[in-house]
Write a structure and sequence with these properties.
The structure is a homodimer of 408-residue chains. Chain A has a domain at 4-175: Carbamate kinase. Chain A contains twelve helices and 20 strands. Chain A is an alpha/beta fold. The first copy, chain A, has helices at residues 17-32, 47-56, 64-88, 120-127, 153-164, 198-206, 214-223, 246-249, 277-287, 316-330, 357-367, 391-401; strands spanning 4-9, 36-41, 93-96, 103-105, 114-117, 131-135, 138-141, 146-148, 169-174, 195-197, 227-231, 239-242, 256-260, 263-272, 295-297, 304-312, 334-338, 341-347, 374-378, 381-387. In chain A, helix 9 (277-287) runs antiparallel to helix 10. The longest helix of chain A is centred in the first third of the chain and has 25 residues, at 64-88. In chain A, a hairpin with a 6-residue loop joins strand 15 and strand 16 (304-312). In chain A, strands 3-6-2-1-9-11-12-10 form an eight-stranded mixed sheet, with helices on both faces. The interface between A and B is medium-sized, with 35 and 35 residues.
């Protein structure tokens, strides 16, 4: 049997009939190169939002089962139209809903988890020379109810099908050319990255790069599915994400610089420094559904300490209220907050074998007279919280300092 | 178990969220009266047309399988929104696609025939006190592919579910108050008919009354499913259609007067009158997919005859071309046609036991100096083709002559 490629096209790639025809041509071109092609598509442009808007006119609290029944129609429209467009070009294609093709999920409607994905039916149709088109974002519970996979669900469908079809290449066709060393709107010299490891991609996406939702990358890493992020409007190669292979990263210290401006910093001041106090604070914040990101606690010599953390700006008011309750409960002094911060990070598997990466990063900051407010590190990333107004110039400086301005 | 009612709501009854909320209130009110309610809904307003328009932008000849995949989403949106609206009122409801509820069809995509409809799953949910909502117009082939039932498909779904649920009442909620003795726009004194037999309804719908597609009535007759045609915007009773019960029609000679203006008359003149010639003519017309309605052949004394028939005006050009080919083939003289005709009919099971109904009809025509061009009769109807410009006044006169102006 010929090699299989799974191609995923997002909402902007199938925004209207003209775009769908473009996708059809790309899919057929791939088949002509000698591949068996499986296509996963999202809903047309803003279809999902429009359906949710309809539901809102009826109720503010739709049942999640019925929500899934409703929004899953968006992808069903796309697969049918894409099949028609491929037929029009004279090629064989057949469309399926997630349910029809055996994508089985649990019953957590609107954010369902995959239980099993069966590649058998798809393989039967591929063997007949057909292009197989599968609705993204959706599956079926064991009880035959329609369930959707939540944000980034179509990417997850694509990766899961790649796995089910033997770990074949999973192309994520999107509206950007790949993953870049930095946001090109901030750093004009930003370069497209040719190869990234799963872990680097995970750090990049959780640190502010919007290209891929972490969920599909975690799944791809677990089952070693190679991902190719590329533009659906160009033939150029994009970014290939795969298992860390030492040789590929030899000499590359860091892969990219990311910037996150959507967080605010909060500090609970003069906290009694006794065992269990941090646990208490973050348990209360978690119970209030607040997504805490970085956490810093200074070492204390006085049995009192300050605890700082970052939260999404969108949750700032809720967080402040909760933090003030915490201050009373634990007998701390007060809460302060700062909205004008940004988190600048460098990511790269190379830093594991290159000592001095952190020092170099701090040096760049010092040269620009920047005060670092918080630092946090993982094995393959270093993040600094600094004043927001200086963040973009720091991103540029780091991009240059780590040699990313020139194509590797 | 409580009595079951199947309620069908058409596209105009669920045209927007406001309408859907109205339907939800009606459904809940029915349940409160002590019934188990199963609801069948069509797609919102012009959704189906919009989907077909999208497909047209891609291809003029969509595959029928993919067409069904596409348009079946319309009803799926409706069922989910209606379930949400019923939940909002505080009642339990659950929505299903045709496939999920076990409506099995053959593989004639876009005009599929029902093979089997299973009421088991619906009964399980009814037994839990839920309102069950089923997407109209669609089912699933044995191979789990989505197939739609063609024009009037939602009505057929409703009748088939009534049958599967033990022959319960099937309410067709629509934008008219019921079936009328004539078109109220033509005959202001037209009355809503309380009861009609299946055969009368069939004659009425095939003779130009737009209320119910014949297909669902034929199915209802076959399985003796009672139908109640009523307005979804009023509480008034509509028209109940059921098996002919002599007592109910005692004294009622005719039930309604209908008018059909969408046909044209064609005549093939001077046809050699020999065995098999009519078969030959109508075989050629059928092969050209032309829907012939009335057929009249005069008795011939000269071994030559004229054959007249009516065809839909929309197919006139195609019919003329075909008829001219026929003239050559069978060595007839020529083809003539007349677009300015109308077919006026009277319908009623009562005419079986009342001799002289036809004579009375012709008398009304004669009083108005109208030339009858064609006559055709069935056991319960008489149709006359006359000049179109006089048709509406004839309908009014017949309505009066047969005593329909006053409520029975």
């Amino acid at each position: 049997m010929k090699k299989i490629i799974v191609q995923k096209y997002g909402g902007t790639s199938v925004a209207n009939p003209q775009c769908i025809k473009n996708v059809a041509r790309r899919v057929v071109a791939t088949q002509k190169k000698g591949y068996n092609v499986v296509v996963v598509v999202s809903a047309l442009g803003d279809t999902t939002d429009k359906l949710i808007e309809l539901a809102k006119q009826i109720t503010d609290t739709p049942s999640e089962r019925e929500h899934d029944m409703l929004v899953s129609t968006g992808e069903q429209v796309s697969v049918a139209l894409l099949a028609m467009a491929i037929h029009k070009l004279g090629y064989e294609a057949i469309s399926f809903t997630g349910a029809q093709v055996g994508i089985i999920t649990d019953t957590s409607f609107s954010k369902a988890r995959l239980i099993n994905v069966d590649g058998k039916k798809i393989k039967q149709h591929l063997a007949k020379g057909r292009i197989v088109i599968v609705a993204g974002f959706q599956g079926m519970t064991k009880n035959q109810e329609i369930a959707t996979l939540g944000r980034g669900g179509s990417n997850l469908t694509a990766v899961a099908l790649s796995k089910a079809l033997g770990g074949c290449m999973c192309e994520m066709n999107t509206d950007v050319e790949g993953v870049f060393t930095a946001d090109p709107r901030i750093v004009p010299k930003a370069q497209k990255i040719d190869y990234l490891s799963y872990d680097e991609m995970l750090e990049m996406s959780s640190l502010g790069s919007q290209v891929l939702q972490p969920r599909s990358v975690i799944f791809a890493k677990k089952f070693n599915v190679p991902i190719h992020v590329r533009s659906s409007f160009s033939k150029a190669a994009g970014t290939i994400i795969l298992k860390e292979a030492k040789a590929m990263w030899e000499g590359v210290m860091i892969s990219g610089v990311t910037l996150e401006k959507k967080e605010a910093k909060m500090t609970i001041c003069d906290v009694p420094d006794k065992p269990g106090i941090a646990a208490k604070i973050f348990k209360i914040l978690a119970d209030a559904q607040i997504n805490v990101d970085m956490i810093i606690q200074n070492i204390s010599r006085t049995r009192r300490t300050d605890i700082s953390f970052t939260v999404p700006k969108a949750e700032l008011q809720k967080s402040l209220k909760t933090a003030r309750d915490i201050v009373k409960k634990i007998k701390a002094e007060q809460v302060t907050f700062d909205e004008n911060i940004a988190k600048v990070s460098i990511v790269g598997v190379g830093m594991k074998s290159h000592p001095g990466v952190a020092a170099k990063m701090f040096e760049v900051m010092a040269d620009k007279k920047i005060n670092i407010e918080m630092i946090s590190t993982s094995e393959i990333s270093i993040s600094c919280v600094i004043a927001k107004k200086k963040a973009e110039s720091v991103v540029k400086a780091l991009h240059t300092a780590f040699g990313l301005d020139k194509k590797k």
